[in-house]
Amino acid sequence: MCKKLYVRVTASFSPDGGVIPKSFYWIDGHEYHIDRVTDVRSAASTKVGGCGLRYTISVGGKSSYIFREDDKWFVEAREC
User: Fold this and answer.
1) Which of 7, 49, 53, 78 has the most C-beta neighbours closer than 10 Å?
2) Cβ–Cβ contacts within 10 Å for residue 17, how many?
3) Which residue has the higher pLDDT, 79 or 51?
């Protein structure tokens, strides 16, 4: 089963108030740099529940999602 994993995120803020994640930290402390953000939309996580802004990101050439739920960030852990 998948689980919601809250992560620490480094982000930048645009003048219009937008938030762009730049990297996130896994539970072991490893930092993953986000190569680019390709989409941002309001969406729910169909795997682990929760909703907010879903960012489609590229990390090391692989596409994934990171979610911003209120003031917290989470990923869908691959323990599915």
Assistant:
1) 7
2) 6
3) 51
